[in-house]
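Support case: P-hydroxybenzoic acid complex. Customer-provided input:
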Amino acid sequence: MKTQVAIIGAGPAGMFLAHMLRRANIDAVVLERRDRDYVEGRVRAGVLEQIAVDVMRDLDLAGRLDKEGLVHGGTNLSLDGELFHIDMEKLTGGKTVTVYGQQEVMHDLFEAAGERGVDIIWNAGDVSLHGLDGDNPVVRFVQNGEAKELQCDFVAGCDGFHGVSRPSIPTHVLKEFERVYPFGWLGLLADVPPANDELIYANHERGFALASMRSPTRSRYYIQCGLDEKVEDWSDERFWDELCLRLGPVAGAKVTRGPSFEKSIAPLRSFVSEPMRWGRLFLAGDAAHIVPPTGAKGLNLAVSDVVYLCEGLVEYYKNGSNSGIDHYSARALARVWKAERFSWWFTSITHRFPNMDGFDRRIQMAELDYIRGSENAQRVLAENYVGLPLK
Ligand code: APR
Ligand code: PHB
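Agent response - structure generated as follows:
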């Protein structure tokens, strides 16, 4: 088998790239270790920056998004139950975010893949990358028990944090930067109307809570929890009680309770590996970087990475220029690090850290109070939250 770009992983990074390349008439094959149901079934964040919405529209994939996505011009912070509003739209000259679950994004990407000839090989086992430092890379994998080879010009490593792409780069080349947070998020999905028409990020003495949503009838809530906690120990009732406490009496009173249909704990991590290119391998999305979910930058960063990568590959194939692919890593990392900074900062001002003393807590309270009272501080938050420009 032969193609121009072998894409490893059919998550958001891999699938957006596959659609972009298809539209540019560049051949690509996506190799995915799991099946479609598994990839589409994973519950992840659900806030799209304008850039991601624009990419969906540009690819003619936004039919459902434009109908069902919830456009949010603002968001809310809460300190010990006292809520304040950030008018992002006003502060950023009209920018908004759109609430549309990653599962819906994946559904739209997969549905259109068939019609448009985006080539995906599901259940590709034992994927390994070879010849990345030469001109003719080869991807080996197993399909239905049979060993296969895919020859290509380039490999796009879109296989997430635990994939094979990043480890294919020699260790003396890679630099890795990491913060692991001493807590996780316990998330719950329930078919109940959301507590509020916009999101609420709550800092409470007992820990962080987030009120989010998927639709006018489906809510997504999170509470900060210890890393050693077990989902089984959190009955729905216990979750609702703790959530309402942390949201405070006003927002908490607007929470509609109901049976959950998904509950899980996710750890929080900040991670960046540099460079994002080695020879003919490009890393994109979670393969190269992880953000804590505070601010919902994960999917959005995957999109901006592959926008840069696709531009580089188009320049290479259409104009015979290496400039775009040569600048890919530096360009992507410049945006990645700013989103890392924002996600780390937003996490640090909203969560309860185990060794926090009175001083740390008062600094957090002062920071939130400062944001509440300063339009300048709100603008800084808003411009990062809606997404920094691509250039
Ligand atoms: N071979 C083939 N596919 C693989 C391999 C492998 N060895 N390892 C992992 N994969 C697949 C996974 O099964 C997954 O479907 O790569 C895909 C990677 O997808 P994500 O982990 O979603 O990563 P990415 O596309 O970069 O998306 C980034 O989306 O899922 C969120 O939390 C994530 O917000 C982040 C964003
Ligand atoms: C979500 O709805 O899942 C969500 C929203 C905002 C975040 C993180 C997750 O910051």
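The mean pLDDT is 97.

Case will auto-close in a few days if no follow-up is received.
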